[in-house]
């Protein structure tokens, strides 16, 4: 914000509302029916039955007037669309990558790149892989390893960069397993699974140096690159200098409803392989599963997202909700991250064992209380050990209140906070859940539940 804005206690959003979408709070009895029909899984709810949707910030943001105008300039040629080259200019200017390949979203980018680089049984090391990334690693016969610093697991500890990888653990793992058994390093910025926590420039530099010491490639999961850059007050291009490339779900910091990409710094041979694999999996490399209008919206969005006024407003709204919950005594991951507020469900609901999914039970209760849809980032999301089939019990069992970009006002945040305060007054009566149906991978999307005994 401007210097003048720093003199005020609150600062308004750096935009005004031009178009609105009606939302409706259906009656409590209707919510009870809706969540039961959804198998107590908020992913299976109809959006019309949701009042405030904090399920995800992926593709749920509001686009600007310039992005909508840009979509009218979509060049829908099958190859060589002008929008591809406009996006190429944004990628080079903002991220600093010489080569890029658009994809329909981040998962498409991961599936292409991982299938090229990973050999069967190799380890992929990172600060903390998100569930969909872990799934794509395993689908490509790799083994995902999380090496986040231990302080990330203590939600009450204040540290500015809880997303940092533990550099000592990283080097020890490489030496112990040998570099030949490591496919690559992947740094997730900000680190979603531990509360949207940023990674420091020093830590990125250190991870890069370790990777180069052992001749290993290092990539960045860049879904929320601008938010991470804002936290460390550095130019985003400098962050990406400590990598060989990136995968990106552009549905977050690309400020679009669909889109992703692979960015590669210098490795032309790898880029050739990416393009070859893109053709059968996503489409021709100059559209990669996107319409020309989508690429144009992304080209504009990537420039808008690094505007400091936007970022200040975005992160301030997350902090606003977090402060409300903290004042109410609700345990959250501290300090607050960039895209969501994470409630420590293990601490909030200590009477529910992890095997009965406390964060998922809290998701159900929050929907019943006020029509708010949130998401579990805990035992349910962690899944089962692929070898033993046993539940993986992560250190953190979190409920994520994910705030879409440029969508809700602080009045909506007040509603969410009030719902959680009311739940806190009767939290001892909340019951755990048991799974009655689950798919073998990424189970939290489609699993169905019943109340535990």
UniProtKB/TrEMBL annotation:
GO molecular function: carbon-carbon lyase activity
Similarity comment: Belongs to the beta-eliminating lyase family.
UniProt cross-references to PANTHER family, sorted A to Z: BETA-ELIMINATING LYASE-LIKE PROTEIN-RELATED (PTHR32325), TRYPTOPHANASE (PTHR32325:SF4)
Organism of this sequence: Naegleria gruberi (Amoeba)
Gene3D superfamilies: Aspartate Aminotransferase, domain 1, Type I PLP-dependent aspartate aminotransferase-like (Major domain)
Biological process, per Gene Ontology: aromatic amino acid metabolic process
Keyword Lyase found: yes
Coiled coil ranges: none
Top-level division of the source organism's lineage: Eukaryota
InterPro entries on file: ArAA_b-elim_lyase/Thr_aldolase, Beta-eliminating_lyase, PyrdxlP-dep_Trfase, PyrdxlP-dep_Trfase_major, PyrdxlP-dep_Trfase_small, Tryptophanase_CS
Co-factor(s): pyridoxal 5'-phosphate
Sequence ranges assigned to domain Aromatic amino acid beta-eliminating lyase/threonine aldolase in this UniProt record: 53-417
Protein name as annotated: Predicted protein
Alphabetically ordered keywords of this record: Lyase, Pyridoxal phosphate
